[in-house]
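Hey Z.,

So I finally got round to the flavin mononucleotide thing we talked about over coffee. Here's the setup:
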Amino acid sequence: MSDNRKNIGPYDYIEHFRINTALMVTMDKDGKLNVMALDWKKMEEREGKPVIRAQVAYTRYTYTLLTEGINEFTINIPSDKIYHAVDIAGSYSGRNTDKFQKAGLEAIPGQKIKIPTIKDCILNYECKIVKDSKSNMSSHHYFYGEILAAYASNDIINK
Ligand SMILES: Cc1cc2nc3c(=O)[nH]c(=O)nc-3n(C[C@H](O)[C@H](O)[C@H](O)COP(=O)(O)O)c2cc1C
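And the result:
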């Protein structure tokens, strides 16, 4: 397997998922990728299945892609090597910037879904959207993605 990583169970190494900002990757119907910084995320269980709940504001291009593009996303916890990507993913919009290119990110093809994960991360998750709902708390929308594949880098596995 590429990128010095291994398949893991969805809940393994969850402490790294909880405390770090994620890079959320989405895709339009033509296969063009976007990446956004995501802090508001939670791992939970729905009907016995592991899901990641992502809270995305209506104004984000990511919201448009999640609702009008491909019905999937990946969640990627960056290693220090690509940490600069968080600033880029969180301060430009995919409407007018190719953030993958700008941040120099490399994609790893999905094992279970169309959307790739990102190279040089400590954790990656491939998720298929199973539900979405309006948040009454804020101007954000909840997207629930069932985790179909999860990976951890050898750097955290061997620690
Ligand atoms: C550290 C950090 C965390 C963020 N977390 C979230 C989040 O959880 N939900 C959200 O909607 N926006 C969040 N943002 C803002 C988006 O990443 C930002 O608006 C981004 O430019 C949206 O890109 P897009 O228009 O390509 O979707 C965060 C930004 C930063 C810098």
